[in-house]
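Translate sequence into structure tokens.
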Amino acid sequence: MNHPILTQIKQLRAELAPGDTAPTLVTALADGRAPLGTLAELAAQQYRIITSDRRSLLLLATRCADRPAGAWFATLADGESAALRTLPALAAACGLDPRSLDPSGPTPDSPPARPPLPGCQAYPAFLAWLALNARPASATVAMITNFAAWGGYCATIGEALRCHYDFPDEACAFFDFFAQPATALEQQAADALGPDPLDGPTLAAAREYALLLQAYEHLFWDTLAASAAD
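Result follows.
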């Protein structure tokens, strides 16, 4: 028998599913038409995003440290740390000096970091807001709802980088990491939130947060696509 919260998560994910229309940049990468400079920009922006998201997740873990959800958020934070370690290889394959990824720790001989693009950094800014203000249960459902779409895009890009850009596995590891199915994380989230279905206000807030996260993720892709056209 399905966990009632898992059923609610699946229903919300189906409601918000993007359908067959992928972001323009994902389609361009899948066809081998996107320039390497766009991938370099993606790596630079993702470094900023992941370092911010990791802190936000740790704050959420602290807010519910005495509940099972705290361990779930901590697991996600560990995953962000693992993903961060894959970015230097992606940056190097794109022709970007990996030393320029970290804007907080430049060395005297390292090139300057790429500036943050507001459209790319809207997602982590909102996740930081959730970490401070949201009900942890609503934030949990909102985040897990959007994992499938992001994972699908990453799977497409990982395949495209090997097929059209001749990237080695090490340079594709960032996308491979997020392309893994989120089934286990969904089950863990449902278990952490308890045996009973989410109440109306908690589920309504989760839907609102999920819609915003989805919009900010689309803005991320659109911003990168626009930067390629400049």
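Note: The radius of gyration is 18 Å.
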